């Protein structure tokens, strides 16, 4: 039976799409048949993170009734299948969200896990992405405004009778000025199942249009994301240790190589 998991945040800018994209690639790496759907039809970014921009047919076309969903599915990194929303403002004009249900019915065929990247907020499109799921991953940063919006999303999800798998804290800086894991769990009344550290390698990977789990599998964020994927499917994950050669040694080696 296909698992339909929506990744939502409430607040925008917390790294939800980055987590969704990398989680899809990571799950595919473990052998799962994964489809990642970008349901953020107004502010789509998933295709940029995966280096898949410019596709001729997108979810915009499907929801506008101009294309079939099978034509909007593309193979991405490590075999993950991706449905980009499209980044054209022109494509938003004739979108009808009631066509999403039929699209999802097709996508769950021959699929182990369907990941839905939900829009931020609680507008109609965001609630539609929540309602389509059986399970929910709640993404937040350890800051009060982000937690506040995540709480609102959690309340709506609970009313929709969606199983909330847990909270993913993103961009953790291990600073006392931010909320602790225990405080986040107390406020949201949901267990924290993953903590993704604030890692500059994530931005570097995004600049190249590559998932961090492929661009730099030894980075702290990559290790945390791979472990999250493993935990979701009951697999064991052995962290990939960074190279033992220190920064200073690398610098010296680089300087010596210039002679």
TrEMBL record:
Sorted UniProt keywords: ATP-binding, Nucleotide-binding
Any single Gene Ontology cellular-component annotation: cytosol
Superkingdom per UniProt: Archaea
Domain CobQ/CobB/MinD/ParA nucleotide binding: 5-212
GO molecular function: ATP binding; ATP hydrolysis activity
Biological process (GO), any one: negative regulation of cell division
Listed InterPro entries: CobQ/CobB/MinD/ParA_Nub-bd_dom, MinD_archaea, MinD_FleN, P-loop_NTPase, ParA/MinD_ATPase
Pfam families found in the cross-reference section: CbiA
Record-listed ATP binding positions: 11-18
NCBIfam families in the cross-refs: minD_arch
PANTHER family: ATPASE INVOLVED IN CHROMOSOME PARTITIONING, PARA_MIND FAMILY, SEPTUM SITE-DETERMINING PROTEIN MIND HOMOLOG, CHLOROPLASTIC-RELATED
Protein name: Septum site-determining protein MinD
Lineage, uppermost ranks: Archaea, Methanobacteriati, Methanobacteriota, Methanomada group, Methanobacteria
């Amino acid at each position: 039976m296909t698992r339909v998991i929506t990744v939502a945040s409430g607040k925008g800018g917390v790294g939800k799409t980055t987590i969704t994209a990398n989680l899809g690639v990571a799950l595919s790496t473990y052998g799962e048949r994964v489809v990642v759907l970008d349901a953020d039809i107004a502010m789509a970014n998933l295709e940029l993170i995966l280096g898949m921009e410019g596709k001729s047919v997108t979810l915009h076309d499907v929801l506008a009734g101009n294309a079939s969903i099978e034509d909007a599915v593309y193979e991405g990194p490590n075999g993950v299948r991706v449905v980009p929303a499209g980044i054209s403002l022109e494509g938003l004009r004739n979108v009808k969200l009631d066509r999403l249900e039929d699209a999802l019915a097709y996508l769950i065929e021959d699929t182990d896990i369907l990941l839905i990247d939900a829009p931020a907020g609680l507008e109609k499109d965001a609630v539609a992405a929540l309602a389509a799921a059986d399970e929910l991953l709640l993404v937040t940063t350890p800051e009060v405004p982000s937690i506040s919006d995540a709480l609102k999303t959690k309340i709506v999800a609970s009313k929709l009778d969606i199983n909330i798998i847990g909270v993913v804290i993103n961009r953790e800086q291990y600073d006392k000025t931010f909320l602790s894991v225990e405080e986040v769990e107390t406020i949201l009344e949901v267990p924290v199942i993953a903590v993704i550290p604030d890692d500059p390698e994530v931005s570097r990977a995004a600049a190249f249009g590559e998932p961090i789990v492929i661009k730099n599998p030894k980075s702290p964020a990559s290790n945390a994301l791979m472990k999250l994927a493993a935990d979701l499917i009951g697999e064991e994950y052995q962290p990939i240790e960074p190279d033992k050669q220190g920064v200073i040694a690398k610098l010296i080696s680089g300087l010596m190589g210039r002679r």
